[in-house]
Specification:
The complex is a heterotrimer of chains A (322), B (256) and C (258). Chain A is an alpha/beta fold and 322 residues long. Chain A is built from 12 helices and 13 strands. In chain A, strand 1 and strand 2 form a beta hairpin. Chain B is mostly helical. Chain B has one domain. Chain B is built from 10 helices and 2 strands. Classes of the chains: A alpha/beta (322), B mainly alpha (256), C mainly alpha (258). Chains B and C meet through helix 2 and helix 7 of B and helix 1 and helix 7 of C.
């Protein structure tokens, strides 16, 4: 087993850098296709995002990557391993934060970490040591002996993340990490995730919050109805699929569609939503001035920068959170 | 090496959780003891002696005591592998979390069955010593009574767990009652097989608890015969089939 | 609304609930007593009758039927007075909703107890029909056991409502079944006369309602003679029903009104 490798093979190549590859990856539940032949590559050390509305197939993709859900067809390799064959080895190297917290309510905060860690082959001493470090990291040291049910939503989510880090994972999967948390708890969580990224942990994140995707992800794919609609860095995607600025125009009516025609031609593009009209323009102030010149007087006009929300709207004609 | 005997930590989890709940389960051993005192001793005065199916004449209490020992083994393991297993499988999602680690479905099944055997074993041991103190143990073969309890427990744990994977609501636990209670009442527990008409005797012989009672009665009364080996194999087969089925079903339910 | 109108409205609600849940309760309420009857009455009865010619000259099957009628009454009453009541008080707060409507606490409780009495009556009655098919009922006098069964059941029901008012969670009920209901069934003279018990255990039977109900029921089944202590038996049962109702009504009122 000690066959010497030729020097050429040990040189780093582009593929050595890939932590995950998916080709034509498909997941079906009966007749329903949750994930429809997607291609994805994730490199070591990056924070990669799946952005899309509920039901886009993000969680199904995540479960396949976590090696707890068999691939229907296509190819999936994580650390170069096939989950159908080496699922156990893959799971040993992954940290998994599912969408629901799924903490063990019958155990205390630290017992949740101890038991979980033992499944990864850590000794009693290692698990205790690691648990106290992670509780520190998750700002839960003072609550270590509490029952889980007494924790707040943000604390529970931090505990789940702490739990997922018990095995020092090379890859951390975060399925909707901040859904249901208040803004302050989200920022605390984001801060913890940034630290992990700096330590070199690869992150794969699903989210339907565009601000989260912009904050956390180096690169992301936009998913819709099981397919990938676009791929790139948040900046790339905005440059490619939107303008620099957006003017949000509101009128004092229930319906906004009738107000669209008079605005035609202002900016590059227009989206009519039930409660507002979006005008896409590189110069928002100029567009606002053009509205006034036409003698139109909306209830309000707001100039803002384009976000991933606008990218998604453009790609799918729908909003992310509905 | 990844993932060696990870059922140990399913067991660890249950032990940790049990430390908080012990008082809830501590009463579990009481029921067979009550039956022994009531039916065995109270009613025993009216029944006096009874002839076992193998021709031994014993007091009624000595006849009932082994049956209650087998029952306590059954009760102890059924509680954890049906009701509690269902709660963890469907509601607290304990196993979803475990299966995201290197643990595999059979680790879950084995761990939970072993835990149920520990609890059932404790119940049985308490009962055994009560029976011993009251003089219902007649033979040194009874040293094997507790291991035999584990075998009975394993059979019920395996099959019970497998059946539970098919349940979708708490209402379905009526079926557990429907399976356990008739077995408890008719497995030659309170009266010998000879009381039944021939056709019904065959039906009774299909019941796992009947074989458990046979084994315990043989061991405690010192009436050991080759038939007990057959009964043991029957229980062992049920345990193995149950474990196999439960592992497969856990996999189909959770790894989708 | 007058008192009878209020009661009728409440009973209508219970009736809807009864129809929805009765199917699921058939196994525990009906089948299990019948299985007990078959196992004990026929199987063990075979042993008893051949060894001692029955209990005090009565074939064993006939001996245990009145006991099992009362045990059924107790089981049904306890079952209906535990988890469902806690549900009304604590989980779905049905009681509170009722009180906010123009119902008084006593109306709400009275309606619930009437419904439980109805449950006990029908279960005990159904069991007696099956027992008759087994040959375990010999006289029309047996019908007199039905009101006694209702009284026995209610002697458990009304005091148990206190638990729902006071307890913080339902785990106490499992212990109640294991440590109170099962031993009572086994040691209150249903399966053998209590004078077979060690002397120190007999007073326990005297203070619990089941033994008193069984003593009365056994006499009713054979049409007499009236037991010497019939007034005591009846008095104990009534004391449990009335005392229990009084204490429970106060406890529930405390819980709901504060």
């Amino acid at each position: 087993m000690c066959r010497r490798r030729s020097p050429a093979l040990t040189l780093p190549t582009v593929t050595d850098d890939l932590l995950l590859t998916a080709r034509d990856l498909t997941k079906k539940f009966g007749d329903f296709t949750a994930v429809d032949s997607i291609d994805v590559e994730v490199r070591k050390g990056e924070a990669f995002g799946f952005l899309g509305p509920n039901g886009a197939g993000k969680s199904s993709t995540m479960r396949m990557i976590a090696s707890v859900s068999p691939v229907t067809s296509g190819e999936l390799r994580i650390f170069g391993l096939d989950p159908a064959v080496d699922g156990q080895q893959i799971r040993a190297r992954i940290g998994n934060c599912p969408q629901k917290d799924l903490l063990d309510e019958e155990l205390s905060v630290e017992e949740n970490l101890w038991v979980y860690g033992r499944f990864f082959g850590l000794s009693r001493a290692e698990v205790r040591q690691r648990a106290s470090e992670l509780l520190e990291f998750a700002q839960l040291s003072e609550r270590h002996a509490d029952k889980v049910e007494h924790l707040s939503g943000g604390m529970k989510r931090r505990l789940v993340i702490a739990r997922s880090l018990i095995n020092n994972p090379e890859l951390l999967l975060l399925d909707e990490p901040t859904t249901g948390l208040d803004p302050q708890a989200r920022h605390v969580l984001w801060d913890r995730l940034f630290r992990l990224k700096r330590q070199g942990v690869t992150l794969i994140i699903t989210t339907h919050y565009m601000d989260e995707a912009e904050q956390l992800c180096d690169r992301l794919v936009v998913m819709d109805k099981g397919r990938i609609a676009a791929e790139g860095s948040p900046r790339d995607l905005i440059d490619r699929y939107s303008t620099r600025e957006v003017v949000e125009v509101r009128f004092d009516t229930d319906e906004h569609a009738p107000h669209a025609a008079p605005l035609e031609g202002i900016g590059e593009r227009m989206e009519v939503l039930p409660d507002r009209i979006l005008l896409y323009a590189d110069n928002g102030d100029a567009a606002t001035a053009a509205i006034a010149q036409r003698g139109i007087h909306p209830l309000s006009t707001l100039v803002r920068r384009s976000t991933l929300e606008d990218v998604f709207l453009h790609l799918t004609g729908r909003t992310l959170v509905d | 090496m990844v993932g060696y005997a990870l059922w140990r930590f399913v067991l660890l989890r249950d032990v940790l959780a049990f430390r908080r709940m012990w008082w809830l389960f501590a009463s579990g051993f009481a029921e067979p003891v009550f039956y022994l005192f009531s039916i065995g001793i109270g009613l025993g005065a009216l029944v006096q002696d009874v002839t076992t199916d193998h021709g031994l004449v014993v007091s009624y209490a000595a006849f009932v005591a082994p049956a209650m020992l087998a029952t306590s083994a059954m009760n102890g393991s059924i509680a954890d592998t049906t009701y509690n297993f269902f709660a963890k499988l469907k509601f607290s999602k304990t196993y979803d979390t475990m299966l995201a680690t290197p643990a595999r479905p059979w680790d879950v099944a084995i761990g939970e069955i072993l835990w149920s055997l520990i609890r059932g074993g404790i119940y049985s041991a308490i009962f055994f010593f009560v029976a011993l103190a009251m003089g219902f143990v007649r033979s040194w073969w009874a040293i094997l009574a507790i291991p035999a309890c584990l075998l009975i427990g394993a059979a019920f744990a395996g099959v019970g767990m497998w059946a539970t994977t098919y349940m979708t609501s708490w209402k379905h636990f009526e079926f557990v009652t429907l399976a356990i209670q008739p077995m408890f009442l008719f497995s030659a527990t309170f009266f010998p097989l000879a009381v039944y008409p021939e056709a019904l005797q065959w039906l009774v012989k299909l019941m796992p608890l009947y074989h458990g009672v046979e084994i315990q009665r043989g061991l405690m009364l010192g009436d050991v015969h080759w038939g007990l080996l057959g009964s043991s194999f029957y229980l062992l087969a049920l345990a193995a089939v149950g474990l196999w089925g439960a592992s497969r079903r856990i996999s189909t339910l959770l790894l989708t | 609304m007058s008192a009878p109108e209020r009661l009728r409205a409440l009973l209508a609600y219970h009736w809807v609930l009864f129809k929805r849940t009765i199917g699921g309760a058939l196994v525990s309420r009906f089948l299990l007593p019948v299985l007990f009857l078959a196992s004990m009455g026929l199987g063990v009865g075979n042993l008893v009758d051949s060894a001692s010619g029955g209990v005090n000259g009565v074939p064993y099957l006939l001996y245990i039927v009145p006991g099992l009628v009362m045990v059924t009454a107790m089981n049904v009453a306890v079952g209906e007075s535990t988890w469902p009541v806690m549900g009304f008080v604590k989980w779905n707060e049905f009681y509170r909703a009722m009180i906010n409507a123009p119902q008084r606490v006593i109306d709400v409780l009275l309606a619930h107890w009437l419904m439980i009495a109805f449950n006990v009556l029908t279960s005990a009655g159904a069991f007696m029909v099956v027992a008759a098919l087994f040959g375990g009922v010999r006289s029309w006098w047996s019908l007199a056991a039905l009101p006694i069964a209702v009284l026995t059941g209610m002697a458990f029901s009304t005091p148990l409502f206190v638990v729902a008012a006071k307890a913080t969670n339902d785990s106490i009920y499992s212990a109640l079944f294991r440590l109170v209901v099962t031993p009572l069934m086994l040691f209150s003279g249903a399966f053998f006369p209590i004078d077979q018990l060690p002397i120190w255990m007999q007073p326990i039977s005297w203070v619990t309602p089941l033994w008193h109900g069984i003593e009365l029921g056994r006499a009713a089944f054979v049409g007499g003679p009236v037991p010497d202590l019939w007034l005591v038996h009846l008095g104990v049962l009534l004391a449990y029903v009335i005392g229990g109702a009084w204490v429970s009504a106060r406890a529930i009122e405390d819980r709901l009104v504060t």
